[in-house]
Amino acid sequence: MRFLQAIRRLRKARGLTQGQLAEIAGIDQARISKIEAGTVNAEASTLTSIASALDLEIVLVPRRVLGPVQNLIENHLKQSTRAEPSRPVTSVRDDLLIPDDIDDDEPNMGPRI
Known about the structure:
- This protein is mostly helical.
- It has helices spanning 2-13, 18-25, 29-37, 44-53, 66-83.
């Protein structure tokens, strides 16, 4: 449900109505309303379209590192808004490397903070 609330919050933060978001995402406005209300289960392609329309990217984070990732993002946002309030935060990608421990051929570099 937090994800659905985030869609509404981010839409409103960008000054978009449900109708405007629907038009940009190529989705029916009634569908946006139902998704935000949590009354339907949206397909991944629909959520991807909404994220793209909001200039966002959906990222899957392993639960074992979710807390540290959330803290890193929050700290990054706080520092960025203090340092340059007019510059939008676009990525914390350079501040974060999460090893997946899947590729045994590559060395495990660990988190980089």
